[in-house]
Amino acid sequence: MKMPAVVNYANQAGAVEIRELPTPEIGDDEVLLEVAAVGVCGSDLHQWTAHHSWPVNYPVVLGHEFAGTIANRGAQVTQFQLGDRVVSETAAVIDADSPLSRQGLYNLDPSRKGFGYGVDGAMTRFVRVPARCLHQVPETLPLEIAALTEPCCVAYNAVVHHGEIRPGNRVLVIGAGTIGILCAAVARLQGARVAVCGLPRDAERLRIVRQYGCEDIVGDPTEWARAGDGLGVDGAIDAAGASAALKTAIAAVRPGGWISKVGWGPQPLDFSLDPLVQKGLTLRGSFSHNWPIWESVIQLLATGDLDVRPIVGGTWPIEQWQDAFEAMSSGQIVKAVIQPHRNS
User: Fold this and answer.
1) Distance linking the first and last C-alpha atoms of the chain
2) Longest Cα–Cα distance in the chain
């Protein structure tokens, strides 16, 4: 059976199109997942415009934020049943015997390959998924919401694992995209006072920031950062990726503070890191996520303590993938969701 899929076929701007692909065959330790919803990530947009900085295995089906139901399972899969509602992690290929994987840090395994760039992703009807990647979705959690577990896990890792937030701390988030807004939401859950710094074109996204109880800043965050004793914020999260964002973070954080860098960007640094040393700051990179993070985030979504509905700007059928991409790329919305079964 053929199925439409959103395929990134070359390393050039605009090299994405709908193609008819066969239903994938699964191995003994895999499931065939029928996709209910798949979120559009900034990385999908970067591959669409060829502005990405990671290797891509062309041609590849896009999409790594997804949830659905199990349509078939391999002979060795016993922990899941047909029809189970599940969400999938992104580490499609790992070396299970590497020292990092044995520590549970398979997200940092150098051989790791993810859905949507290393192997075929979920912007289609059926996707092949290793059973080890799956998590059960509670019946009370809609699959179109569960599909956004992955960006929430990125934010959770950046804030909870790589930040040092105590209730009442002041935290600056730089970048008003999906990850920046979700980082702000998680920081608020930890009891921080939070401001999100964006650009003039981020007006709509910054409006959404206020729904999470955060302050919004357009441009220079210096005044907010130095409010109080004048020394700066307790911590900052760079969710923008550009080198200028890290420079802003270093300037905004008080001596002895911390920076969690989750944003990607290929630009070289064009400034001195001496202030990082002089202030005694802690700078940590945050990449991806692992099993316990997913379990925690699913509970936060199921209880409503973490609400992603404010960032969802709409849903689109797979045939209208380009409309969804353009709506996000233009800044009209924060997050688009594609529903492969929905009729156009």
Assistant:
1) 20
2) 65
